[in-house]
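Need a sequence for this fold. Nothing fancy.
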């Protein structure tokens, strides 16, 4: 691992440790009935996380512009950690706002949320769905002060996009060009059609067979039967693992792996599309597993809906991944909200690696054409 990559990785690890430490500190004082103590810890946590958030972004930007790292994975992970630092900072601030502002800054449905019931888990969930622009509508700002806070938070997202995206594009192009030159100098094969095609076909078969198998099992057994639940759990882990694993391996091969073979643009696009489908299906199975009888895991806008089926679970998974969030289905239980946060988080990393893979394939194809 080269020097710039190692320095960036070290900084990322230190800031991740700082993030976890702040969460542990808040968790230790949460049982305290004194609202003032919780508010004070939330205010301190928000203020202290601002400095490492700015520092890691500046180091990330400087590293990419002046000392480009030798792979794509570390800058992508660093950017995700930066997102989490900002999310944690705003989460603490919203807890502080809920405990100290007059009235009820946040509402759920038509009812205001009691500030004592708006802790860090609820604040973290609200911050993530706001940052990801999902907006299920189950929790929203309902006073002038809290709405202005959300405006500033969303302005952070826009600023990150304007500053970070061009830097990330330059990094991908630089890595792809260096990668292509190393392949040429090593007289490596510029594509591995048979191996990549095998992976693509295998993913396509799995994507088509999984829903059919689930529907057959659900038709022959009750939807809440043990066999169906076990199958949903295994499918969720397998599909998410295959989708994310294939994407990371492919992106690493194109942007910094030691293998002298790469992937064509056509195969890269096929891989991204199939990984996207598997990712949606995998989380659909996870939501079905969470939505057990009596769990009250999801809220539905229509009174005729009470439980998820595979179609509605896939629909909710897709609207979450695309950050659409119509609000007709919203996670209600802590487990469902954690799963939604997980999908959004992994979805951000998924988008970064998919972007890196396809962009590097385009650069490689253009370089081959000019050569």
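Here you go.
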């Amino acid at each position: 691992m080269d020097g710039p990559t190692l320095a960036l990785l070290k900084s990322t690890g230190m800031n991740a440790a700082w993030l976890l430490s702040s969460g542990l500190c808040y968790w230790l004082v949460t049982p305290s009935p004194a609202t003032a103590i919780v508010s004070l810890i939330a205010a301190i946590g928000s203020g202290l996380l601002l400095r490492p958030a700015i520092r890691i972004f500046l180091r990330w930007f400087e590293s990419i512009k002046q000392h480009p790292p030798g792979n794509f994975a570390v800058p992508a992970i660093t950017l995700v950690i930066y997102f989490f630092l900002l999310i944690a900072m705003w989460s603490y601030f919203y807890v502080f706002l809920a405990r100290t502002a007059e009235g009820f800054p946040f509402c759920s449905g038509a009812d205001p949320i009691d500030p004592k019931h708006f802790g860090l888990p609820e604040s973290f969930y609200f911050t993530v769905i706001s940052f990801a622009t999902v907006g299920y509508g189950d929790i929203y700002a309902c006073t002038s002060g809290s709405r202005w806070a959300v405006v500033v938070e969303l302005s952070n997202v826009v600023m990150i996009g304007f500053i970070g995206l061009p830097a990330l594009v330059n990094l991908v192009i630089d890595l792809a060009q260096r990668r292509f030159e190393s392949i040429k100098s090593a007289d490596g094969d510029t594509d591995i059609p048979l191996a990549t095609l095998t992976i693509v076909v295998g993913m396509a078969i799995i994507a088509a067979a999984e829903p059919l198998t689930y529907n057959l099992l659900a038709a022959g057994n009750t939807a809440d039967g043990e066999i169906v639940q076990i199958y949903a759990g295994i499918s969720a882990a397998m599909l998410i693992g295959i989708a994310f694993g294939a994407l990371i391996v492919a992106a690493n091969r194109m942007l910094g792996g030691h293998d002298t073979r790469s992937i064509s643009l056509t195969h890269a696009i096929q891989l991204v599309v199939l990984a996207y489908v598997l990712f949606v299906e995998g989380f659909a199975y996870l939501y079905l597993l969470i939505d057990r009888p009596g769990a009250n895991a999801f809220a539905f806008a229509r009174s005729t809906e009470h439980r998820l089926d595979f179609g509605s679970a896939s629909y909710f998974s897709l609207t979450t991944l695309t950050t659409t969030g119509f609000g007709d289905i919203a996670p209600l239980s802590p487990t469902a909200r954690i799963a939604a946060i997980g999908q959004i988080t992994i979805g951000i990393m998924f988008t970064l690696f998919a972007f890196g893979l396809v962009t590097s394939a385009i650069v490689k194809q253009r370089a081959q054409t000019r050569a």
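For context: The chain has a mean pLDDT of 79.
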